[in-house]
Amino acid sequence: MRILAVDYGLSRVGLAISDPTGLISQPLSVVPTARVFQEISKIVNDRQVSKIVVGLPLNMDGTEGEMAKRVREFAQKLENELGIEVELFDERLTTFEAEGLLKEAGLNWKKRKRKKDAVAASLILKAYMERKHASGS
Fold first, then answer.
1. Any bridge partners for residue 12, and if so which?
2. What is the mean pLDDT of the chain?
3. CA 132 → CA 11, 22, 135, 136, distances in Å?
4. pTM of whole model > 0.70?
5. How many domains does the chain have?
């Protein structure tokens, strides 16, 4: 059961995928938002993805802002167009954590910018899988 994770942004979308067992996440790619549906559709078909997890950008107090509303609309459209289960998952601080990991790895600003969204998607997926494993579902 492969899971695809999405870190949605206005200009770029980070993607990450699990291994077939649904235990390990890895960054996959960063795609322009304008091409995200085509790219996700291709990945779902090519890699037999059974679920998509979309990061929900909540405010630190747990409330939803304008971006969370856009992400909900995107997730609903994704589910309708692809006919695959889409689940939202709290993504607070994942982009910040991704930036820190890439900085620790010694990547310069340009390389960090290119990879940050895919690493954030991988962190979303890792947290999602850990929570599912801990709850036994």
1. 32
2. 86
3. 30, 10, 5, 6
4. yes
5. 1
